[in-house]
Structures are given as C-alpha cells and as structure tokens.
Amino acid sequence: MTPPGATSDDGPERAEDGPAGPGTGADRPADATSAGVRVDERPTGVWRDRWRRVEGWFSEEPRELDPSPAAHELRTAAYLSLAMTLVIVVTGSPSRMPALTPLVAIVGLLVPGMMRNRWFWLALFGLFVVSPIARPWVQLDNHNWLQVYWLAAIVLSRFAIRPDATLRVSARLLVGFAFLFAVAWKVISPDFLSGAFFDFTFGTDRRLGDVAATFGLQESSLTSSNQRQITAWRTPGTTPVAEAIELSPIMVALTPWLAWGTVLLEGAVAATFLAPLRERWRWLRDASVVLFVATTYPLAPVTGFGLLVLTMSVMASEVKPRTRTVVYIAAFIFVSLTGERDTFLEWIEPLFGD
Amino acid sequence: MLHRRDRALAWALPVILILVALTQITLAHTRDLTPWKGGGFGMFASVDLLSYRPLQAEFVTDAGPIPIDVHDFRDAGHRARKLYTNARGLPDDRRLTQLSTLMFEAQWTVTDGVAEFAAWLDDTSEGPVVHDTDEGGALEVERMEMEIWRVTYERGDGFIIPELIRTFAIEVDAEEPEL
User: Fold this and answer.
1) Inter-chain CB proximity A242 and B161 less than 8 Å
2) B173 to chain A, closest Cα gap in Å
3) B 59-118 → A contacts, CB under 8 A
4) Per-residue pLDDT reduced to its tens digit, A124-162
5) Could you tell me if A327 and A289 are in contact, meaning their C-beta atoms sit under 8 angstroms apart?
6) Is the CB of residue B160 less than 8 Å away from at least one CB of chain A?
7) Interface membership of A138 toward B (CB under 8 Å)
8) Which residues in chain B are closer than 8 Å to A142, comparing Cβ atoms?
9) In chain A, N or C: fewer CB atoms in 10 Å?
10) What are A90's strand-pairing partners?
11) pLDDT value at position B122?
C-alpha cells in the first residue's frame, strides 16, 4: 500500500528529484530518519565518503535529497526500475546490438550515480536503438517496440524538472496502453474469444503444447505433426488446401475459459494502470501485473516482454518500498527462470504421465 | 501534479505507442499486415502468424511455369531473408517488387521441376538466369507470379483453411539484352 505522504497519481509534490546538478552529498547524515522512515540507504562508514565522491561525479540528483517518505518511496522505485532496465540490456542482447551496449549498461550498474545521469541514458539509448532500427519494422515483436519506448521515456524523464515523477507517469501509461491494445486485438480478432486461437496454438505451438502434454492433457507428438501439415504449404508448386489437424478434446473444452480468463486478466492490468485510482486502491496495479506474470509465463515463456512489463510496473508501483522490492525481484527472477521451463517440465512430467 | 513540461515529457512516448498501435491495427485490417508484428500488441490474438504465411512463386518461362523454392532462397543472404519476411508480413506492391527484383538478380537452376537459388549474378542486368538441369539449356523468363496465403482456423471442425491474401505478377523487362 502507498505510504502516508504519497499524494497525487503523478507522485509526490515535493521536488525530491528536483533540478539537476552534481553534488557530493558528503555532508548529509547517513541513515537519517524522518518520522521513523529510513531515508538514506547508501553505504555508511569508511566507504561512505568514497561512494559519495564517485556518485557526485555522475549523479545529477540534488545535493540534498528530500527525506520525506513519499520522496523516499519514489526514489527507491526509480532505483529498482532503472537497475532492472540495465539488467535487461545486459542479459537481453538483441541481435545486431553493438557489443559495446551491454558493457555500457554494466558501467551503469556498477558506477555510483551513473543511473542518475541523463547523458548516460542518452548514450545507452543511442547504442540500444541500433538493433531494432536495423530490422524492418514489419518484423519487430511487441517487446522490441516497448523496449525502445521505455528507454526513450527514461531519457526524456531525465530532462524533466522532476525526473522520477515524470518517469512514473510514463511507465504507468506505457503499461496501461500496451495492455489496452493487447486486449483490443483479442476482442476484435475473430479467432480469440471463441477459443479458436488457443485450440490452434495448443495444437501447433510446442511452447504451449508441451505444458499440456506434461500434465497429460494432450499427446506430446501432436504439435509437431500438426505443424508439419502447415509447413507443407510452403512446398514449391503446392496450392495449399484445407487440412484437419489433431486436437485434444480436453484442451478444446478448456480453451474458451482460457481465452476469457486472458482477456479479463489483461483487461484488469489495462484498467488499473489507466484509471486514476484512489491512493488506497493503487496496489491493484501490482496485484494484476503479478497475477498476469504468474499465470502467463509458465505457459508462454516470452521472457523479453515479461521482464520489461515488470520493470515498468515497478516504476509505476506505489506500494511500500520493502514489499515492492521483494515482490518485484521475486517476479523478475521467476520470469527469467521460465526461460528454463523445459527442464522443469521434464522433471515434473513423470508425476502426471501414464 | 506535474509541471506542464514534465507532463508533456511523460506523455510523449505513450502517445507514440498509441499512434503506432492504431496504425498497425489499420494496416492489419486494410493491407493484410500480420497481427503479430508491427507494434500493435496483437501477438497471441490471432492464428495469422507470420511464420505460417506461405509464399508460392513461379517463373513463367518459354517452357511453361516453373515453381520456385522461395523458402530456401531466404538463406541466400541477409537481404534475401529480410525481403522474403517483409513481403509475407506486409504483402504490398513495394515489398513484393523489392523481393522480385532481388530474385531477378540471381541465377537459378531447375532440378526436378523446381527452380532453386544457385548464385548471385555479377551483372544484374542479365537476370534472372534460369538453367534447366533436367532438360539442359537456359530458359527464357517472361514474368514471375507470386501468391501469399495465410492460415485460418474454424473452431469445431478442426480444419486449418488456407486463405489467399495477395497475388502479384511482375514482367521481366523485355528490353534487357538476351544472353
């Protein structure tokens, strides 16, 4: 839940991330508290001065950070979100991304204050954007577009009067509209709400078919045999003709429920992120995103999109900093691990097999 | 509340997202852009996947139509793969012409009645050059024809049904010198 002091949907009123300008911050007490809230979690002791000296070279945060709970809440969200963004850049490595890009991102993670520097983000964006621009837009996946939007939003926010509050609004809107269009496509598509899309996909896409096969809901060889029928349409000189594909009756019974469940869940994410919720209801944004991630990614391990949605959602999140950190890091690791899902399915398959 | 400038900065990328997504939805419904690509968030909403869009092509020659292995042609290089994928993702005149032009810059061999990519031509004004290894000798190509299909699926009967979304024909320039 939002801590007392967080006010508008755009973030706290105070200039907690106010005018840019380097400062050492060396004279500020570490671990100072205000109304019982820890406001400075940076290193203490001998290393404190060294850390802050380096941080002061790069960070554009004001010398004196606003110690209010609302400012602290916003600042920690930004740190976590920006760090997660850099982790995605380091580990994601889209094709044809300059080799320098992950190295620059690592510098951002390791050098104190670098994450708070607008020129660092501008340079990283310039390097990162080479990869999607090199590919025709017709071939780009959703997460490629969203990655570019998100990095561009970070860059723009660094030029704002209140960078973190500005980025929070961008994050909330980007997640909200991405899910709104995802739901719109599912509603206008002739295939989706009837369950036809999931019938087809469980019958032809190994990523989903393997999950159903693991739980004994369909034959494991079904997707590959159906896929062969479709790819046979590529044979030179062939005129494609209608073919019957093999489907599992159990899955055919389940897929309309799955379709409506998907629309409701994605609709919930869109609604909670776009609606001007009262402060006490904003935790619904986190709940809907976490539920989406927990139910979607074991089935469809499209980790690039999942990690990015979490990274933006953590910026938009207004729950207590400690809760937020634990939940989102756990969710981030969970989505990353779904990339290794096949190994897990192999382990549990004997439990459900014949 | 954010300062007016900050609000503009915060909304800039969401507005671009909205414009791109609306454009993608429009193109998907008017020009057969695959719903899965193009920034409209249509992945996992339709069975019309780009990878399931077959492209059939044939050279119309003096010896009759010769089917082309276009799927294999995409391995002829980065540009071939790019144009082959583009032409299926958004099969408009421009993208199909680009793919055709590239195919005309190649030398093809006909084996078992199918034209397969053999090599790139040094002099692209020659092309396309088609050698018939079955019958021997070169074939004179008059034009190339293409068809792009997509998969549809009707719930209930369990049939996947191909739908022809685009046909395209391009003449080989008659003024080019014959070799």
Assistant:
1) yes
2) 24
3) 67-71, 82, 85-86, 89-90, 95, 113-115
4) 999 888 877 778 889 888 888 999 999 999 999 999 999
5) no
6) yes
7) yes
8) 39, 41, 43
9) C
10) none
11) 87
- B120 and A CB contact within 8 Å: no
pLDDT tens, residue order, chain B (179 aa): 789 999 999 999 999 999 999 999 999 999 999 999 999 999 999 999 999 999 999 999 988 999 999 999 999 999 999 999 999 999 999 999 999 999 999 999 999 999 999 999 988 777 788 988 877 788 999 999 999 999 999 888 889 999 999 999 999 874 444 43
Which residues of chain A have a CB within 8 Å of the CB of B134?
Answer: none
Structure token pair of residue A237:
């000189």
- The partner residue sitting opposite B9, judged by closest CB among A141, A160, A200, is A160
- Please name which of A93, A111, A115 lies closest in space to residue A102, comparing C-alpha atoms: A93
Is residue A198 less than 8 Å (CB to CB) from chain B?
no
The answer to whether residues A105 and A115 touch, using CB atoms and an 8 Å cutoff, is no
State the ipTM, two decimals: 0.90
Q: Can you give the pTM of this predicted structure?
A: 0.85
**CB spacing of B39 vs A167 below 8 angstroms:** no
